[in-house]
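Need tokens for this chain, all 440 residues.
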Amino acid sequence: MSSAAPRTTGQDHLWSVDEHLEDILATVRPLEPIELQLLDAQGCVLVEDVTVPLSLPPFDNSSMDGYAVRVADVGGASEEFPAVLDVVGDVAAGLGGLLHVGPGQAARIMTGAPLPDGAEAVVPVEWTDGGLGEGPVSGMRARSLAPEGAAGQVRVYRPAEARAHVRAKGSDVKAGDRALEAGTVLGPPQIALLAAIGRGTVRVRPRPRVVVLSTGSELVPPGDALGSGQIYDSNSFALTAAARDAGAIAYRVGAVADDAETLRSTIEDQLVRADLVVTTGGVSVGAYDVVKEALSHVGDEDEEGSGIEFRKLAMQPGKPQGFGSIGPDHTPLLALPGNPVSSYVSFEMFVRPAIRTLMGLGDVHRPTTRATLTANKALTSPKGRRQFLRGTYSDGAVRAVGGAGSHLVAALAHADALIVVPEDVESVEPGTEVEVVLLG
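Here are the structure tokens for all 440 residues:
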């Protein structure tokens, strides 16, 4: 986080969505890189290219359980006239001391085992009698039960071309190749590749730690009984889940009552484990909007450069917003409105890009597309506000779900997109092409 305080623009300035987001992204900085063990690096972003130190596979190996043979020895083989070869031993994965396969010989070989010297191809065991002399078999007997299978003779009933069922050295990646580029998010396949080329640790930007807390004396944790005038706290659960979905390590703090001092002390206690703090509720103009009360003058007492600015945005939902930094490390804090839809839309527009910026990603935004509006009547939008309507998107078409109310959390649960209505548009007719933010 930069040490510079957010710019001030006056109480009556109406910020655009783009101005507010630009201010956030100009202030938040990617976290410093660290070296992590592979599993600890899951979900993190690489900060440097990774070069392959050894080829994969590192040697020619068998892709089948069967017999390593010379091509000339099995040419023309059939069930009527099988090729009869002397078995010189077993080649198992992970065992050293490779055998040599000479003329008229075969080595019993297991999947992943190195191709022995002199062998040119592998015939699957199903093409042989397995050394039993009783026609084609469906598999090998366990060595512990039948050690004699590594000796004697084997009948091969089909010919094999050169390199048949052989995985060539370097056929996956070659030494010196670039395995992964800087900026790659490490998921299970990427971690598998790093492990396969022998990397035990990797240099990444860590996943940001995000603390989420909601405010309101009326909020009750799910599972508890509701009293008169109380509601369940959904915002802190929704935003914690959203932060994790964005790539963060997120911590949910129980709802804080409408008391400014309690809120300030709770936030200060959380700073030790926070790269970003997100609050929801208490940012409007009511007498009990304690986030504004608690944090409006936080910079007067904290380290120089800290401070939270509360703003009005030309958007719906999500008009009241707060942004700045708090504490000695200038930890960024985003204060979101308390209505469920307002807080979630605000998260998608502002918090998610901030988290992705902390991760060091190049593209921090949700994908957008153009879609044809499907509706029974025109959608209305307030003049001068950028409206974000919940919608469902499919095959180039989008339809609104629920109304414009910022409390309609049930409709939000069925949405997979946001329909964007620009500030200068007051009505959108069915069939109009609109901008859509894809959430899934």
